[in-house]
Amino acid sequence: MLEEGIETVGSNAFCHTRATSLTLPATLTEIGGRAFAQCPALEAFYYGVRTSGASIGECAFYDCTSLKTFALPTPVNVDAYAFHNCAAIKSFYFNKHL
Predict the structure, then answer these.
(1) Which string of b and e fits 6-37 if b means at least 16 CB within 10 Å?
(2) Collapsed DSSP state (helix, strand, coil) of residue 47
(3) Three-state DSSP class for 25?
(4) 3-state percent helix, strand, coil for the chain, nearest multiple of 5
(5) This prediction's pTM
(6) Distances (CA, A) of 62 to 5, 68, 84, 86
(7) pLDDT digit string (tens) for 25-34?
(8) Burial, 53: exposed, middle or buried (Cβ in 10 Å; 0-12, 13-18, 19+)?
(9) What would the pLDDT profile of 19-78 be if each residue is shown by its tens digit?
């Protein structure tokens, strides 16, 4: 889990890491391109953002082949190929107002 108060995860910041689950703070408004790309062990992603207009960059989760669960509480902008080759995704959870 990243600490509350962080607003941006830069491009390639966690690319190729072995994280299995991510919980991102509500203060985070931008996930850079390829920020979590090619993390083969990543299975679940929870984004607590409270501000609509936050963004998930191009190829941010590219090739996260074990990613099964994704949760978003508010509307966010999702760039091209953000979840490319994430074939294991079984559950997307969105706020009921989306």
Answers:
(1) eeebebeebbeeeeeebebbebbbbbbbbbbb
(2) strand
(3) coil
(4) 0, 25, 75
(5) 0.88
(6) 25, 13, 5, 7
(7) 889 999 999 9
(8) exposed
(9) 999 988 889 999 999 999 999 999 998 888 777 788 999 999 999 999 999 888 778 889
